[in-house]
Design a protein that fits this description.
two-stranded antiparallel sheet; mainly alpha; 292 residues; globular
């Protein structure tokens, strides 16, 4: 699984996931701020003739285009107005290329349809809610992994459905260190821990509950000296991991500017020299949505 590293890092910083983090998710920038405007200009340079998005030299795909479209919406823009040769970013999602059958991809599609103001139960002739429900087991588990699961939870919450049973399954996967891994039984990492925090809070888990506080304690331990976070192992801090943690902190009612080592996490994320996500591997891509 490859990563469109620079492009995804750019718009995961813009991405706010407002349905999860609420008003706090705008911390600390507004859509009119220069940093967000500059990021949008970069995204415009990545839009292709089919309305989708890709880095230079790459083909468009639903994963990359999902991040771009959600970033556009989070910044207060209308994807219908982002056009190349008459085809908009919204048009892309009714194209054949946008069709996919992975658990995470279906769930991602639900969140995007809701963000577009459309009905995920009837979009382009497809009932995406029926499709995602088919991926949920009797125990509330979506797909085969933790990352497929929290995306299923995001889909339920986005569509206004109850996610209590999936939340209970997810809490049962929390590691002894308070974090979450990409699949049951593996070591914790900041990306999946941050996404799990957001999924649990979106499902109604109180921010002061033991599972959330334990996960926050794990993130506190994992923060690096530059203020940022890595995606596990011996990797360096990177803006994609930082962005997911910042969103989780905001969702939990924390002030990311107060999370400091030698520098605050926001400083690490906004630095021009902050590393993008490196490497071509992708054991599961974490919140960068691989096939599920």
């Amino acid at each position: 699984m490859g990563r469109d590293r620079i492009l995804r890092s750019t718009f995961v910083v813009v991405l706010l996931l407002a349905l999860i983090a609420g008003a706090a998710a705008a911390f600390p920038l507004n859509a009119s701020d220069e940093e967000v405007a500059d990021a949008q200009e970069y995204l415009r340079s990545c839009q292709r003739d089919n309305g989708g998005f890709a880095e230079e030299g790459r083909e468009t795909n639903p994963g990359t285009s999902w991040f771009a479209t959600m970033a556009i919406i989070a910044a207060g823009e209308d994807p219908e107005n982002w056009t190349v040769n008459g085809t908009s970013a919204a048009d892309y999602w009714t194209s054949e290329e946008a069709e996919s059958d992975g658990t995470a991809e279906i769930a991602r599609m639900v969140t995007l349809i809701v963000a577009l103001g459309e009905d995920p139960r009837d979009f382009a002739g497809t009932d995406y809610m029926a499709l995602i429900r088919e991926r949920m087991g009797a125990d509330g588990h979506f797909g085969d992994h933790i990352y497929t699961h929290y995306w299923g939870m995001f889909a339920l919450v986005a569509a206004g459905e109850n996610a209590t049973l999936p939340a209970e399954w997810l809490k049962g996967q929390q590691n002894d260190d308070g974090g979450f891994g990409w699949t049951p039984g593996v070591e914790s990492d900041p990306d999946d821990t941050a996404a799990s925090i957001m999924a649990l809070i979106a499902a109604g888990e109180p921010a002061d509950s033991a599972p959330i506080q334990d996960a926050l304690a794990y993130l506190d331990e994992e923060q690096m000296e530059d203020g940022g976070f890595n995606f596990g192992g011996t990797s360096t801090s990177n803006v994609a991991s930082d962005a997911w943690v910042i969103q989780a902190l905001a969702a939990a009612g924390e002030d990311p500017s107060q999370w400091e080592k030698t520098a605050p996490v926001w400083s690490a994320t906004s630095s021009p020299s902050a590393p993008k996500r490196g490497g071509s591997g992708g054991r599961k891509g974490s919140p960068t949505i691989p096939a599920g």
